[in-house]
Amino acid sequence: MLRFAAVRLALIPPMLLGVSILVFVMLRLGQGDPALDYLRLSQIPPTDAALADARVLLGLDRPLVVQYLDWLRRALQGDFGLSYVTRRPVLPELLGFLPATLELAGTALAITLAVSLPLGAWAAGHRGRWQDRLVRGIAVLGVSLPNFWIAFLLVALFSVTLGWLPPMGRGTGRGTLTHLIMPALAICLMSLSVNARLLRASMLEVGGARHVVYARLRGLSEGAVRRRHVFRNALVPVVTATGMHVGELLGGALVVETIFAWPGVGRYAVSAIYNRDYPVIQCFTLVMTAVFVLCNLAVDIAYAWLDPRLRLGGEEAA
Amino acid sequence: MLKPATRAVAALVACFLGPAAAGQLTYSWPSNVGPLNPHLYAPNQMFAQASVYEPLVKVRGDGTVEPWLAESWSLSEDGRTYDFALRPGVTFSDGAPFDAAAVKANFDAILANRPRHAWLDLARQIEGTEILGPLAFRLVLKAPHDPTLLELALPRPFRFLSPRAMGADGTTAAGIKAPVGTGPWRLVDTQPGVSDTFARNPLYWGTKPAFEQLVVKVIPDPNTRVVALQTGQIDLVYGAAGQIPSEAFLRLRDMAPAFAAAVSPPLATRVLAMNSARFPTDERAVRRAINHAVDKDTLVRTVLDGLEPRADFLFAPSVPYADLGLRPYGFDRAAAARLLDAAGWLPGRDGVRMKDGRRLAVEVDFVGTNAQQRAIAEVLQADLARVGIEVRLIGEEESSILARQKDGRFGLIFGETWGPPYDPASFVSSMRAPSHADYQAQAGLPEKPSLDATIAAALAATDGTERRRLYAELLTTLHEAAIYLPISHAVAIEVHRPSITGVGFGPTINEIPFVAMRPAAR
């Protein structure tokens, strides 16, 4: 188990290196010019002199390889350069915005799990009946509705019409939850729907397995069979999917943060992409890759814990 | 639309949720205001720089100049030396005196970073500065430069930071210690991605703001801004028309008295520049025909929701030197057809006109993500097709369009005049720089060299009558040559909650008159 985790951890640095090269090159393959964007944001007419000046200021006048190696050398020391737009160090700024995003995505994940698991189990328990159809109907809706549209609907209903919830911003103290609930709901609906359907299907599949039939024959109560033998085994694919949902929720946060003026890293990244703020995009991609990979590692460990075959197989081989 | 009862409940809840603490004005902006270095550009936001820092002189709505941190000034005979008498009793918000030494220190810091300001004529024209006395300051230019005072009034870079707050060895190019100005507001708090808070400057020499605090929330999305205003998260929307969608503006205006809304007088002109160096807009008849062929009234009513007045000339007649009584190119398809017929452009089989085997096809270049430009471009396409001109739409991202205008790779390209106080002087000055769409558009005119000479002469003219004559000559030539297709006059909008009053428009879009706003009597 430890060895498994260690190998996975050791793979992260080379992967980040690869991602960094990929992002660096892809950004510069685009036809835009960040120096022009810089001048546009500064409302300076883009004369040739001003452009040349901006290129030097932003370090874009050097060969690509030199730019990359220089960036890499500094990045290894934790210095991801200055944002083209704010002219402040990228990493502290990004890490300053990250907690808000993690709070949002974390809450959304919690809602996803807290709602989808009972919902999926309920549907599976009433296969073919109205409960099942209801859950499946909700799931189809949840998967098809875009999160930004849900966000606007939520705001229109709960903030503008009813006035129950604040339409924007991040709260503190007692306001934390009221500010959090709408953006978290908006982004979790998709993962929630997928999870509920997945659990339902998985429970139905496991419900017909031989060990479940034997458990019933052994005279175990239906509740115990469901909990111990069906639900737990049915969780395995759901856990895998949850790893994917982390990425989905973080991606959803990117969009929804702008609508809710949520001071997270997503909004920071969206404006960086729009303004071609290379250092920010590079750092953001790496940090998010790291977050995503670590979450998946956690999922894999949970997976190994849930499924003894994986765990024991791994140790026997070792 | 909300029912009255629901609206009342919403208002009640909004009071509970909102920041309506007495003495606080809440506004919003798409980003944080930045570190507020008065001598630098992005990410510093101009409206905030203009709230904290003040200029020697200010521009009034009619384009004339009024004393501000300088009480008076005189110009030497040769038009090169300005002597300013500074206002006594002014201090920076850290208590440091505002005097000639402070003014000189700021000019030194700005000029130490001169290449950054090279876009501004005045930054290139300054030869030296001098302290004549505790409150007497001299500015010496290399050559006479008429818009000097207007350019001194800009939100940046010629505004004044406390010398104590400057960076190492008195420079500001690499950063400042703190944003300390003489203006009515002090920046007291910045929460990244959340808000910036300004407090009333207790040492302010002029009329102090009625509000104790100005909170600027970070709201990047225009629709979110509308909801924030509706729910009382902010008190005020103010700025260029894009601050909120125009249909939302109309809706809020109809909700009076729940909200008060207003549109400013014309600020700038939305124009398309036509490339005189490129086929087929190198022909004057084609450019004139295009001017006749566009139904601007319908365009303004539909695409712009009727918010902006139609534009007939490059500058609105209210712009200094621009009221020339010229005859506009009215909407007249028959006239457009006559011009094209006379020039030998005859309708081809598919309706597009042809001459010497070439089709009459022009390219309209616009920012693809800009819904308004796209809509206008599509209207142009339809209108021009009616007179036999084919339009190819080229929608690209913003920096690609910028690059096109810089290199002259366009047929018709969207642009906007800069508004007060840049219009007309700084704007026509920029027509001489090859990186501007205006230069490229005019480059094919045989009279381009003489146009540039006229611009230079107008900027250097020390005699008012002569200057007026030169501007008239320049603007008449441009109008006759039909280099521009003016569309509408850009305006600013404001919407505020009834809890505040005294909201009006400043003479420029970048200076928001927060000082005049006050809580409404309850």
From TrEMBL, chain A:
Ubl conjugation among keywords: no
Subcellular location: Cell membrane
Transmembrane segments: 104-125, 137-165, 177-194, 283-306
Superkingdom per UniProt: Bacteria
Keyword Chloroplast set for record: no
Pfam family of the protein (one): BPD_transp_1_N
Keywords: Cell membrane, Membrane, Transmembrane, Transmembrane helix, Transport
InterPro entries associated with the record: BPD_transp_1_N, MetI-like, MetI-like_sf, Nickel_NikB
Residue ranges constituting the ABC transmembrane type-1 domain according to the UniProt record: 98-299
Record membrane topology: Multi-pass membrane protein
Chief place where the protein resides: membrane
Family stated for the protein in its record: Belongs to the binding-protein-dependent transport system permease family.
Protein's name according to its UniProt entry: Nickel ABC transporter permease subunit NikB
Species of the source: Methylobacterium longum
